[in-house]
Amino acid sequence: MSSLSRPVLSPVEMFGRRLCNRLAVAPMTRVSAHGDGLATDRMKDYYRDFARGGFAIVITEGTYTDKDASQGYDRQPGITDRRQANSWAPIATAIADQGSLAMMQLMHAGALSQWQDARRTIAPSAVPPLGEMMPAYGGSGPYRLPSAMATTDLAEVRNGFVAAARRARRAGFHGVEIHAANGYLLDQFITEYTNRRDDEYGGSVSARIRYPAEIVAAVRDASPADFVVGVRVSEAKVNDFNYRWGGKSEAETIFVALAEAGASYIHVAGEGRGFRESSSDQREPLSTIARRITGLPVIANGGLHDPDLADDVILNEHADLIAIGRAALATPDWPRRIAHGEAVVTFENEMISPSASIQNTDAWFARKLAHGVHG
Ligand SMILES: Cc1cc2nc3c(=O)[nH]c(=O)nc-3n(C[C@H](O)[C@H](O)[C@H](O)COP(=O)(O)O)c2cc1C
Predict the structure, then answer these.
(1) Rounded distance, CA 293 to CA 264, Å?
(2) Closest C-alpha residue for ligand 1 atom 13
(3) 26 lines ligand 1 (CB under 6 A)
(4) The whole model's pTM is what?
(5) In 3D, which of 102, 167, 111, 166 has the Cα closest to residue 139?
(6) Which of 62, 205, 242, 255 could form a disulfide with 290 if both were Cys (CB 3.0 to 4.6 A apart)?
(7) What does the pLDDT look like over 141-152, one tens digit per residue?
(8) Residue 178: which region, alpha, beta or left (left: phi > 0; alpha: psi -120 to 50)?
(9) Closest ligand 1 atom to the C-alpha of 356?
(10) How many C-beta atoms surround the C-beta of residue 203 within 10 A?
(11) If pLDDT is split at 50, 70 and 90, which confidence band does 375 have?
């Protein structure tokens, strides 16, 4: 196929603007901020390179929303005050200057916080998380036992998301993506075994999706109409790749609640799984269900770095947009290279070892270059 006729490279009108193609950079934690959560100059170049490389949408790494218990990792960037917001402004500008949509992912880690300086970790219920902390993000050993969120915590976390979104907007972002995927706080509400609440936020799936939907609605209500408020969900989690929602009807309930809350788009993450396996229903991928039942723009994700497969997803209307994670990390100008039929760099785990920092990826490329030069 002529590269320029690829469906995944076709422009589209969406979010009140023209996107140059269907490609988004998936949110990727890089634990590369200053210790106080300020974004760095290196992060500016890192994000600008994706926009310059042709991604229509650049979604930042999960950025923590409040100073209480939202932070997940050491060296994670935050958006909890004016200084942190100011440090993001050059990044938003660098992305927007290239004509790309600048989106900040807002994240509360909940029980999966592995930031050692946290005073406490919080979650829907006091359930010990499965698995162990992730070395790639600077953790080791079992997670701490979280405390169950009180009514005041629910209000404070909600306010944190709203204030964070306002700061992101003032910093120049076109929108925010609420992180309700991959096992973090909002996903802990959706997931049966981490949500044992007996109030209106626990029990049936309609109750378990209530709090994430309230966060989306609160951010939506506090934002101007042209500000994009997306939401990301997944079945699998960083600490449980095998979790599945309870079938198609549960998926539909989740998607409808998020759409009714006013989400601008739904992003279905394929944490640890390809897009086709990210479905509790073998016949219909989750992204297809989301698109059919809500009519909202849907971003599919998970192993979609094969351009033919990505084309297939767009062509067969399984999604409107494709988010690329690891392949973008390895090849920031992936869209341009695909458009020109050029070779791409294949992702290797060593690029994010011993931690997922940008510095370790830079070092990987420097080693390759040295290797190439010297033989
Ligand atoms: C280094 C790294 C960091 C990640 N950090 C985040 C994150 O901050 N927020 C999030 O929603 N997903 C995060 N993810 C998951 C990716 O967004 C994506 O869902 C996953 O890599 C699968 O997509 P892919 O097959 O295109 O890589 C991360 C993935 C990687 C590899």
Answers:
(1) 14
(2) 28
(3) yes
(4) 0.97
(5) 111
(6) 255
(7) 999 999 999 999
(8) beta
(9) 1
(10) 15
(11) very low
